Amino acid sequence: MVFLTFTHIYDRNAAKLEEIEKVLIDLTLDGKTCEEMGLEPFRCTEIRSSIMGIPVFISEEIISFVLRRAKEELETARPALEMRWSINPCSTVQ
């Protein structure tokens, strides 16, 4: 049995893009709130995935709790983490 998982980073830009896409599909939704459009409201940057059809949201607060670090300590590591995520896995490392 094979399980495929799709994971993406959900940030403020992704939330705005989701709203725009929804409005382009149905113009009557223009000017309505996320809840009225049937979308999850943006609370914080999250890693979103699903396991066996169950949605999973992992926020920075959860990561800092698991690592037993303050969120502020994670902020100092953010540039290095963002650089690691931006690397194309298909590209060759030199």
Describe the structure.
This protein is of the alpha+beta class and 94 residues long. Helix content is 45%, strand content 16%. It has four helices and three strands. It has a three-stranded antiparallel β-sheet. Strand 2 and strand 3 (54-59) form a beta hairpin. The longest helix is centred in the C-terminal third of the chain and has 16 residues, at 71-86. The radius of gyration is 17 Å and the shape is globular.
How would you summarize the topology of this molecule?
Blueprint: E1 8-10, H1 12-25, H2 34-37, E2 46-51, E3 54-59, H3 60-67, H4 71-86
Antiparallel strand pairs: 1-2, 2-3
Shape: globular
N-to-C series of helices and strands: EHHEEHH
The radius of gyration over CA amounts to 17 Å
Largest sheet: 3 strands, antiparallel
Oligomeric state of the chains present here: single chain
Strand content: 15-25%
Report the mean per-residue pLDDT as an integer: 75
Give the beta-strand count: 3
Low-confidence parts lasting 5 or more residues at pLDDT below 50?
83-94
Structural class: alpha+beta
How much helix, percentage-wise, in residues? 40-55%
The N- to C-terminal Cα distance equals 37 Å
What is the overall number of helices?
4
Order of the strands making up the biggest sheet: 1-2-3
